[in-house]
Specification:
Elements (H helix, E strand, L loop, with lengths): L2 E5 L1 H5 L12 E2 L2 E2 H4 L2 H6 L1 H16 L5 H13 L3 E5 L5 H5 L4 E3 L2 E8 L26 E5 L9 H10 L2 E5 L11 H7 L3 E6 L11 E4 L2 H18 L7
C-alpha cells in the first residue's frame, strides 16, 4: 500500500508554530508580499532576514506533537511505501523521526546562496550577512520558497502521487498550488483520498474520507488503522 501524505500548517500549529496567515491576511504582523516574495526581499532584505531569523528561532523552541510522531511511527511500519510531502518549513517531522520526507517549500534550517546556488544546513541568524560555506560570498537568504518561485522536488512528488494507493491531506487549507491539486491528481489515477483536518476544506474533487478534528488526535487514530490493516491483510476503509 503506497501512501503519500501531504501536510500543511495545521499539523504544526498544535506544536505552537503560527499558521501562515491570520484572518487579516497578515503573517506575524507583516504583509505576505513584504516577507514572502522575491520582490519583498529586494525591497527590504533586512526586514526579510530578521523575519526568518525569528521564525527559525521560534521553530527551534517547539516540539513535535502526536501527529508528527504518528507519521514517523507509520514510516517505521511500512518504510519506503510512505512519502511525507510537507508544505511546512519547520523541522518537526524530522525531529519526530520521519526520514522519507520532502520539503516542497524549503526549510528554515537551510540557507540558499544566491551566488552559487548551494543549500547549506543553517541554524544561525542571517541578518549579519555571513559568508556562504561553499563559495564564501555573503549572499545567503532563507531557503524558503516564496510566492512566484518554483517549489522543490515537483517531479518526485508528482510521480509518487500518481503511483500511490492512498493520498492523505493533513492540516492544509487546499488553497495553495501546486499542492492543492494533488488530491485531484491522485484521484484521477485511482487512489483513495483521505482528509484529516480541523475543518474540512472545499476541495474541487471531494475526498473519499473526511475526518475532522485535532491533528494530534485524528492522525494517530488513522495511523493505527493503517498499521492494523497491514497486519490483518484486510483493506478496511483505507484502500
Amino acid at each position: 500500500m503506497r501512501i503519500v501524505v501531504l501536510t500543511g500548517a495545521g499539523i504544526s500549529a498544535e506544536s505552537g508554530v503560527p499558521t501562515f496567515r491570520d484572518a487579516g491576511g497578515l503573517w506575524e504582523g507583516h504583509r505576505v508580499e513584504d516577507v514572502a516574495t522575491p520582490e519583498g526581499f529586494a525591497a527590504n532584505p533586512e526586514l526579510v532576514l530578521r523575519f526568518y531569523d525569528e521564525r527559525r528561532r521560534g521553530a527551534a523552541s517547539v516540539q513535535p506533537n502526536a501527529a508528527h510522531r504518528a507519521l514517523a511511527r507509520l514510516e517505521g511500519a511500512i518504510g519506503s511505501e510512505l512519502l511525507v510531502v510537507t508544505q511546512n518549513v519547520d523541522d518537526l517531522h524530522e525531529r519526530a523521526g520521519s526520514r522519507n520526507l520532502v520539503h516542497m517549500h524549503g526549510e528554515l534550517r537551510r540557507a540558499l546562496c544566491r551566488a552559487c546556488g548551494s543549500r547549506p544546513d543553517w541554524t544561525a541568524d542571517l541578518i549579519d550577512r555571513p559568508p556562504c560555506p561553499v563559495c564564501g560570498q555573503r549572499m545567503l537568504r532563507p531557503d524558503v520558497v516564496w510566492f512566484g518561485e518554483l517549489p522543490y522536488d515537483l517531479d518526485r512528488i508528482e510521480q509518487a502521487v500518481v503511483a500511490c494507493d492512498v493520498f492523505v491531506s493533513i492540516g492544509t487549507s487546499g488553497a495553495v498550488y501546486p499542492a492543492a491539486g494533488y488530491v485531484a491528481m491522485a484521484a484521477a489515477f485511482g487512489a483513495r483520498t483521505v482528509e484529516l483536518n480541523l475543518v474540512p476544506t472545499a476541495a474541487i474533487v471531494p475526498f473519499d474520507d473526511v475526518r475532522a478534528g485535532r491533528a494530534g488526535e485524528i492522525v494517530p487514530a488513522w495511523v493505527d488503522e493503517v498499521i492494523a490493516t497491514r497486519r490483518t491483510g484486510t483493506s478496511g476503509t483505507l484502500a
